[in-house]
Amino acid sequence: MPAYEAILILKKMARPEVAKALKRATTNIFNNNGLLFGIENLGHRALPYGISAHGRRHKEGSYFLIRFDSSTTTIEVLKDEFRRDIDVVRNGFVRIRPEENIECTLDEEMKPPAYRQDVKDMIEEGRRREKYKFQPKTGLEYNPWRT
Amino acid sequence: MFPLVESSLGRIILSNKGFRLRSCVEYQSVRNHKKPIWVPIAKSKMYKNIVDIPPPKMEFEEMTALQESYTLYNRSLWKFQDGITRELEAQQQKEAIQVSEDVELERIFKMNDVENENVRKNREESLLKEWEEVEKEILQMRKQKEEEELQTLEKTEEFLESEMKRLEGAIKPEDVDELIEKALGAVWDYNFAIDKTGRISQGRHNSVAVADISIPAEPLVTPVEGTK
User: Fold this and answer.
1) Per the CB < 8 Å rule, is A37 touching B222?
2) What is the mean pLDDT of residues B23-39?
3) Which of A73, A103, B42, B214 has its CA 20 to 30 A from that of B25?
4) SS in 3 state form for chain B?
């Protein structure tokens, strides 16, 4: 099963209500054959802009990350569940992929063009001109026209 | 008279007269029991009546006819013989040509056989060589494929092991309440600031009030393998 990260912005509530909302979310995940791996609290913050949800205008919200594994078809179900939860202002899902090992080449890129290896290679490629070599294409191992 | 010099071959007449001579020596062949040419006819034979009796006409005609028939017969024989000879020669020539053609054909066929044998040998060698190369290539490809499969298998096993290891960190439904309480008690802030000296100040409000935010030493979530 692929790994996902659910982002939940809960409305401004007291701690027990927040716990209940998180409990509902995790229960939904378990009900849809998901595996929970952790909950992360990113704190209570002011929203970047006012968000209307479930008939109310929200200016603050509690940010939570829920990391879980589930099948790909479950995500739509969970999205629907979270959308209909009146305590959730916004929700989102991110697929967690293995991190790619990318080497830092900034030092090489900051060099002048004449010192860069890729430029050197390009110059070398531009210089190389292979002479045309006659190909008899007779299927023989020897040259039948040799005098 | 001219002086005569007799020899076994004839008489040599020497002349010293005033008229021009073609040669100083005139040769006259010896005519035995006959008079020389320049001696006149003997008187006793001067009035000898020589009667020329022609042969009978019939004889001449007969001779002519015989001669003609003989000639004709002879010619016809010669012609016949020529024809036979020509036919024989042509036949002989033909046979000779036939024989030479057969010999030539035999030689050519023999040469062709030799050439075919050489070509067959060369072809077999080249085919063997080619097949050896192909076999080598196939074996190499098979080896490469086996190695790739082994690598894939190893990778899969590694992935499965890591997944199994990760699954050990999965949270059970009965532990959710505890987890929620823990999460609500600790806020994790990914924001940080870095200055030129490399000092890192963690948290969103680090410059204002660091003490307001409780930063746990480690995130509460179980990290996925290969991710931050």
Assistant:
1) yes
2) 75
3) B42
4) CCCEEECCCEEEEECCCCCCCCCCEEEEECCCCCCCCCCCCCHHHCCCCCCCCCCCHHHHHHHHHHHHHHHHHHHHHHHHHHHHHHHHHHHHHHHHHHHHHHHHHHHHHHHHHHHHHHHHHHHHHHHHHHHHHHHHHHHHHHHHHHHHHHHHHHHHHHHHHHHHHHHCCCECHHHHHHHHHHHHHCCCCCCEEECCCCCEEECCCCCCCHHHCCCCCCCCCCCCCCCC
Q: How far is CA B164 from CA B128, B161, B225, in A?
A: 53, 5, 11
Q: What are phi and psi of A107, to 5 degrees?
A: -60, -40
The candidate with the shortest Cα–Cα distance to A11, out of A89, A108, A70, A81, is A89
Per-residue pLDDT of B50-60, as tens digits, reads: 788 887 888 88
Question: What domains are there in chain A, each with its CATH number?
Answer: 3-95 (3.30.70.60)
The residue among A23, A37, A63 with the most chain B CBs within 10 A of its CB, best to mutate, is A37
List, in sequence order, every residue forming a beta bridge with A8; answer none if it has no partner: A64, A91
Tell me the C-alpha distance between A71 and A93, whole Å: 13
Q: Is B25 exposed, middle or buried (0-12, 13-18, 19+ CB in 10 A)?
A: exposed
Between the CA of residue B98 and those of A1, A3, A21, B31, B83, what are the distances in Å?
92, 96, 116, 65, 22
Instruction: Write the pLDDT tens digit of every residue in B51-104.
Output: 888 878 888 888 899 999 999 999 999 999 999 999 999 999 999 888 888 899
Structure tokens at A38: 């952790």
The answer on pLDDT for B179 being more than 50 is: yes
A39 close to A26: Cβ distance less than 8 angstroms: yes
Cβ contacts (< 8 Å) between A97 and chain B: which residues? 227
Cross-strand pairs, A3: A69
